[in-house]
Amino acid sequence: MDYETIIVETRGKVGLITLNRPQALNALNATLLGEVNRALDVFEADRGIGCIVVTGSEKAFAAGADIKEMANLTYPQIYADDHFAGWDRVANRRKPMIAAVAGFALGGGCEFAMMCDFIIAAENAKFGQPEIKLGVMPGMGGTQRLTRLIGRAKAMEMCLTGRMMGAEEAERSGLVARVVPTAELLNEALKTAEAIASMSQPIVMMTKESINRADEVSLSEGVRFERRVFHAMFATADQKEGMAAFVEKRAPRFSDR
Ligand code: CAA
């Protein structure tokens, strides 16, 4: 399949998407959104893919939504198009997605990274929601996801001032799972993705779904949801295999059933 703005590869059981608009620091335009969704459709349909990694370049994961594409849109146009709604399809994928972030992850770039299940950051990563400086605010979920991840005080400060946050602060604040040396970023992300892809695929997807419920419901409803899904796992062959392998002191051989 031909892509203009991304590079799509398969590394074993891992699907890798590399954002590739270097001339615009990977600014997210409509073509890129369409291509990312197309690549994700393919990976989601492929039973051989167990985890997806999204990355950019060493200079930029993505410097935001494409300002030049957006600048002259009118309210009727942006409303009629339900501009950015296509990103909901990215955020609602069922297979696990890791964002491997080096360099700038600003505006929509930070928001795209936050749509993934977790972020692994290079030491040179810089996160920010600078939209306020453009006379707008985050529009791809930033006011909501950043607040859930790092709390109200820091989200408010970031979105109201537009200041950037380095990798160390981002890890301390809960925005990123882990910081790694910049040169090691892709290797570390692929290793982590391979580890996830080696687990039972249905169990991984149910675990992701259960964690995502935490953003939507009360604690008691979330715990109830978790328990029901936990019970359902006992209908899988992989639960039998995983527990038998432990008892027999051997590695499990999951069959994704
Ligand atoms: N949209 C379109 N083009 C962009 C872009 C963006 N978000 N970010 C960078 N570019 C382009 C620049 O215009 C420039 O192109 P030209 O060479 O044709 O002029 C090229 O990428 C390189 O950028 P710079 O020369 O600016 O590179 P730099 O190293 O000097 O600065 C930067 C890097 C600090 C990231 C700076 O590019 C910048 O501030 N970018 C914009 C960041 C931003 O405001 N992002 C939010 C966008 S709005 C949004 O995302 C809304 C939302 O919630 C979804």
Automatic annotation (TrEMBL):
Function: Could possibly oxidize fatty acids using specific components.
Residues passing through the membrane, by range: none
GO biological process: fatty acid beta-oxidation
EC number: 4.2.1.17
Lineage of the species this protein comes from: Bacteria, Pseudomonadati, Pseudomonadota, Alphaproteobacteria, Hyphomicrobiales
Protein name: enoyl-CoA hydratase
GO molecular function: 3-hydroxyacyl-CoA dehydratase activity
Keywords in alphabetical order: Fatty acid metabolism, Lipid metabolism, Lyase
InterPro entries: ClpP/crotonase-like_dom_sf, Enoyl-CoA_hyd/isom_CS, Enoyl-CoA_hydra/iso, Enoyl-CoA_hydra_C
Keyword Lipid metabolism: yes
Stored Pfam families: ECH_1 (PF00378)
Superkingdom of this protein's organism: Bacteria
Family label: Belongs to the enoyl-CoA hydratase/isomerase family.
